[in-house]
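Explain this one:

_____
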Amino acid sequence: MGHALCICSRSSITIDNKRYYFIQKLDEGGFSYVDLVEGAQDGRFYALKRILCHDREGRKEAQTEVEMHRMFNHPNILSLTGHAVMERGGKSEAWLLLPYISKGSLWSVLEKLRDKGSSMPESRILHIFRGICEGLKAIHDKGYAHRDLKPTNVLLEENDKPVLMDLGSMNKARIEVKGSREAMTVQDWAAQRCTISYRAPELFNVESHCIIDEKTDIWSLGCVLYCMMMLEGPYDLVFQKGDSVALAVQNRSPFHSHAASLKDSRRS
């Protein structure tokens, strides 16, 4: 793993003996931050993801994310430019240097369309969807599953080429559950790492003896396709209302209610 050095007032950092200048903050999550940085040598922009590691388990998870990125060399999966660990005050941060894609996420594009009262043409939907499928297939072919596929985890390059990102929830595609304790462990993990409105039904109530596999990604993939067509996820409204997403997912109710309301609006 590379060595990290913070210089002056954090205006510049060094990863793998290359200096990068801090430009601005891009995003912030529960345990991670994303900054825009510029390479001192090549003048290119990069996204620096800083993962806060509070304990040994956190450091292990960050290292797993690094390994997941390194496993793939595919046009529809975000590559890893460099990485390092920063030790500070008894705590550590994992730094992942990633390509910067200025167009942003698929979700940001869909939001703009919704604000304009517009929609995404079918040809564009199919183009993006195919790229997502190809990236997902590459992950599945390696025996892994993404587990948190959603519009905010799909970046779009200028030519609308989708790139899957945020590989921190990835794990082995096939998980054999033996007993109620293992089932609860998987269920608790899914509650923490798999976004609720895109989570597959089998992850809400994990059976005591079952096999969880890459089909969880296929469910999420269908939700992403729905979102591209409707400009909102099939269970986004359920979540926003504070209703039970788990119950709605198991009943598949939003698909029917949304389709009905869409028909009524067209009639009027």
Q: What stands out?
A: DSSP finds eight helices and 13 strands in the chain. Residues 122-141 form the longest helix (20 residues). The radius of gyration is 20 Å. The chain has two domains: 11-99, 106-263.
